[in-house]
Amino acid sequence: AQSVTQLGSHVSVSEGALVLLRCNYSSSVPPYLFWYVQYPNQGLQLLLKYTTGATLVKGINGFEAEFKKSETSFHLTKPSAHMSDAAEYFCAVSEWGSYIPTFGRGTSLIVHP
Amino acid sequence: DAEITQSPRHKITETGRQVTLACHQTWNHNNMFWYRQDLGHGLRLIHYSYGVHDTNKGEVSDGYSVSRSNTEDLPLTLESAASSQTSVYFCASSNRASSEGVGELFFGEGSRLTVL
């Protein structure tokens, strides 16, 4: 069975600092990888996804993630944090043929002025 | 614009009552899902459906049921509400896989249920 590990339930950064949210997965076959963002009192929305092709994926709001097969990782980064980035971030993994993603527990991003 | 809507957004009920949470999507997606979100547990899958008249149990299905009579709707019913079912419930939908792989989930805004 797949598993998704998000290291750190909370990550705190200063405004303008680099954002790094970690995601590692276990999968026996190359997976499809997703990052979702959840703002307070809202549903999740897609930030970016990796299916095939280029391993560096760009998403909305300046976020990007890199699929590293050898490290089974899909870490999310943003060069400069903004106050509006404060939210809960979820990493998710699907295998081909499965429509049901496995979600990580989520990481709460806190941005300090 | 296509969307997925949940109702009610907030509900307070009593233990033992039957409760139904509605989910309606206009994406024309085949796949629909119900999750609950609780602190410390992340998102947990309750039930899902791959199409009309198809329903399947997720990891936390006890005490919940769904039915799929059309493409657009997947109502979630709590047969006899319990305090342990106090949670935020999210409905989601996705399309069939394409040459680009499995589609992403589109989520509703959530329904906050309190069982007293």
Question: Which key phrases capture this entry?
Answer:
heterodimer, A: 113 residues, mainly beta, six-stranded mixed sheet, four-stranded antiparallel sheet, 0% helix, B: 116 residues, seven-stranded mixed sheet, 11 strands, globular
Write a brief caption for the model:
The complex is a heterodimer of chains A (113) and B (116). Chain A is built from no helices and 12 strands.
Can you offer a commentary on this structure?
- The complex is a heterodimer of chains A (113) and B (116).
- Chain A is mainly beta.
- Chain A has no helices and twelve strands.
- Helix content of chain A is 0%, strand content 51%.
- With 116 residues, chain B is mostly beta strands.
- In chain B, 0% of the residues lie in helices and 50% in strands.
- In chain B, the strands form two sheets. In chain B, strands 2, 4, 5, 6, 9, 10 and 11 form a seven-stranded mixed sheet that branches. A four-stranded antiparallel sheet of chain B has the order 1-3-8-7, with no helix packed on it.
- Classes of the chains: A mainly beta (113), B mainly beta (116).
- Chains A and B meet through strand 5, strand 6 and strand 10 of A and strand 5, strand 9 and strand 10 of B.
Helix and strand pattern of chain B: EEEEEEEEEEE
Largest interface: A-B, 25 and 25 residues
**Portion in beta strands of chain A:** over 45%
Strand coverage percent of chain B: over 45%
What secondary-structure arrangement, pairings included, does this model have?
The complex is a heterodimer of chains A (113) and B (116).
Chain A: E1 3-5, E2 10-14, E3 19-21, E4 24-26, E5 32-38, E6 44-50, E7 56-58, E8 64-68, E9 73-78, E10 87-94, E11 102-103, E12 107-112
Parallel strand pairs in A: 2-12
Antiparallel strand pairs in A: 1-4, 3-9, 5-6, 5-10, 7-8, 8-9, 10-11, 10-12
Chain B: E1 4-7, E2 10-13, E3 19-25, E4 31-38, E5 42-51, E6 54-57, E7 64-66, E8 76-78, E9 87-94, E10 106-107, E11 111-115
Parallel strand pairs in B: 2-11
Antiparallel strand pairs in B: 1-3, 3-8, 4-5, 4-9, 5-6, 7-8, 9-10, 9-11
